[in-house]
TrEMBL record:
GO terms for cellular component: plasma membrane. Belongs to the AzlC family. GO terms for biological process: L-valine transmembrane transport. Pfam families: AzlC. It comes from the Bacteria. The keyword Cell membrane applies. It is a multi-pass membrane protein. It comes from Microvirga aerophila. This is Branched-chain amino acid ABC transporter permease. The chain crosses the membrane at residues 24-43, 79-99, 137-164, 170-187, 192-209, 215-232. Its main location: membrane. The keyword Protein biosynthesis does not apply. Keywords: Cell membrane, Membrane, Transmembrane, Transmembrane helix, Transport. The lineage of its organism: Bacteria, Pseudomonadati, Pseudomonadota, Alphaproteobacteria, Hyphomicrobiales. InterPro entries: Brnchd-chn_aa_trnsp_permease.
Length: 238
């Protein structure tokens, strides 16, 4: 109590961190079976648990890691893997540009903290920004927890390997899909939201069918941004 009185900001930091942990808990739980699955697949490709841990700790991008591991051969096609990863993660540029004006972090803090950006942390932060600015305490608590959760679950999956069986038989592969449906529902049902989601999903599905991965990720993201801009009220563009 005395410490809180001596530092009036400490109470705010703790409140923001608690709110962050409460919001990220469903995403962290949903990430566990996906992390186990990735670790098992990576181990089957010949990666050691230490290599899986290093990849998850430094890359921290589930979609990009799955894409890389699916194309993994020996020797690894480094240029092709780097290009595929770039296409999948280029959406983070748009996500960061969207979120940046809504945070209380300084620019250097943003550059450092956005290492922890994922679809989940971005969506939850955007939803929180509807009511209040996103603080550094809120963002970092989410990011660090999700990062540590992903690191542990993927490494554990690599250790357990074939003992896990096929998580898809239990529906584990649908965990993230269900989570994203919940995140989208949390934004409400405004015309802009519905148009953005519909256009992004339609373009991503068409590109995936006619062109293939990983082009559908970037295409869907760009189409969604364009749809949101065009469907927003005119005064929002001023």
């Amino acid at each position: 109590m005395m410490m809180d009185q001596a530092n009036p900001h400490l109470k705010d930091y703790r409140r923001e961190a608690r709110a962050s942990l409460r919001d990220i808990a469903p995403a962290a739980i949903a990430a566990i079976p996906i992390g186990l699955l990735f670790g098992a697949v990576a181990a089957a490709k010949g990666m050691s648990p230490a290599e899986v841990a290093l990849m998850s700790g430094l890359v921290f991008a589930g979609g990009a890691q799955f894409a890389a591991i699916e194309a993994w051969v020996n020797p690894a096609p480094v240029a092709a893997l780097a290009f595929a990863t770039f296409l999948i993660n280029v959406r983070h540029v748009l996500m960061g540009a969207s979120l940046s004006p809504k945070t209380t972090m300084t620019r250097p803090q943003e550059f450092l903290s956005y290492f922890f950006m994922t679809d989940e942390t971005w969506a939850l932060s955007e939803r929180r920004a509807l009511d209040r600015p996103v603080t550094g305490a809120y963002w970092m608590a989410m990011g660090v927890v999700l990062w540590a959760n992903w690191l542990v679950s993927t490494t554990l999956g690599a250790i357990l390997g074939s003992f896990l069986g096929d998580p898809e038989k239990l529906g584990a592969d649908f965990a993230f899909t269900a989570l994203f449906i919940g995140l989208i529902a949390g934004f409400g049902r405004s015309r802009v939201t519905l148009v953005t989601v519909a256009v992004s999903a339609a373009v991503a599905a068409l590109v995936h069918h006619f062109v293939g991965a990983p082009w559908h990720v970037a295409s869907g993201a760009i189409a969604g941004i364009a749809a949101a801009y065009l469907s927003a009220p005119r005064e929002a563009h001023a």
